Amino acid sequence: MTGNVWKxxxxxxxxxxxxxxxxxxxxxxxxxxxxxxAAWLGRRGVSCSKERAQxxxxxxxxxxxxxxxxxxxxxxxxxxxxxxxxxxxxxREEMKAQELRAEREHxxxxxxxxxxxxxxxxxxxxxxxxxxxCSRDICTEAERRALLVLGxxxxxxxx
Length: 159
Prior knowledge:
Layout: H1 5-13, H2 18-27, H3 32-43, H4 50-77, H5 79-82, H6 86-113, H7 127-133, H8 141-155
Helix pairs in contact: 1-3, 2-8, 3-6, 3-7, 3-8, 4-6
């Protein structure tokens, strides 16, 4: 039942303005994978609660901090040097692929955690409620606008 989270994330990300919004949120420390899963849960009609959002955040933190963020930091650290070094540029592309693989796994792990929530829940289909619950640290106007872009795209994407 969780197999569609990756397709949903890719479809949302492909919509106009979403890549820019997600990168802006990511640069401010938001876990975009967590937000995409939150939007997916909302679109699937899973009831949102503070407890569920906290469960997802607690599950997301270790993978984000020990796998995704170190890969991203290294890839970003190589950005400038890779423009002058073909071998490093190739390694950086491989690192980017590994980061994407780690993000895909992150999405799936969070979706798997929510599997029990998918059955028998009252249809809520409120991606905004999930996005708000999973984005407590988003406080600037630019971050709120980016979150609105993500939420709007999620509402236009089949779960």
